[in-house]
Known about the structure:
315 residues, alpha+beta, 5-stranded antiparallel β-sheet, two-stranded antiparallel ribbon, 10 helices
Amino acid sequence: MHEVRAMTGQDIFSNSQKSFIFSFLQIWRPIVYVVGFFLFCFVVYLLFWQNSIALNTIFITFAIYSAIALSTYFLYTYLNRQQRYSFVGIYFHSIIHKQRDCLARIQNIDDNKKKTREEKIEDFMDTLVNTLDDISELFTFITGNKCAVCLKEIRSVSGDEKLRIATLARDTNSAIKRKAFENSVKTRDYPQYLENSTAFSQIIFKGKNYFLCNDIVKLWIEGNYKNTSLDFEDRTPKIKYSFGKVKAVDWPLPYKSTLVTPIRHLETSNFIAFLCIDAGYIDVFDFSYRQLDLVSAISDLLYIFITQFMKSIDE
């Protein structure tokens, strides 16, 4: 119990206190900025008159004000982070509720309510997309950046020893925005091998529990990032040198930060898919136990949901 407390930490404020202070700071923060501006103008005015007594007074006032402003900023940041994670339970309940109801409908043995195989698959895919929508909303809220979510399925093709990956489902929003991108890959009839993707190969072949990168553009420039979508000649970014720095021009992927976890049963080494969360900006995710444990827990829920569906599909 003591170890758990050491890792998670203790909250300084109760939930009601957090809500009150958080609301107060949202109002107080712009006031601090406005007062700071007028205080700066006042300092300039006093400097013009060279009043040493006034200068000493204003210096002390400015120091006090700076301390209050910094305290306000750090307190607001802390509470903002706490506030974001307070909604995790709501989304978890929504995910579990939808998956439970879907499995109950699919496994229904009542002849009057029995679904055909096609109806079961349709119900499963609808629930899967709804689940990804919840995950997208959750991580968008936590990170403060729009996050896209998808499931990459692991496939084996007869006559080919190499494992392949394919998109099983996407959240509704990114599915619309990335439809053209996805179709351009499919129409090229190019096999997307798992080993040609750094994120997936790190997990499968090197035993990593996750892949997290907050700047895949930089990682690619360093020669440490591979992605099957970058294998096409017209998709390869151009390298540009500017003021001693190396930049990638015309980055083709719709994301720059990504977090990937396996959907698996570790003891039996049963890997079935990957849960991928990404965003269009750098430095979106963090390496804290909160985010990693959260996405790992969601992956475990998806493993149960997918495997239970696979068992019942032919019953």
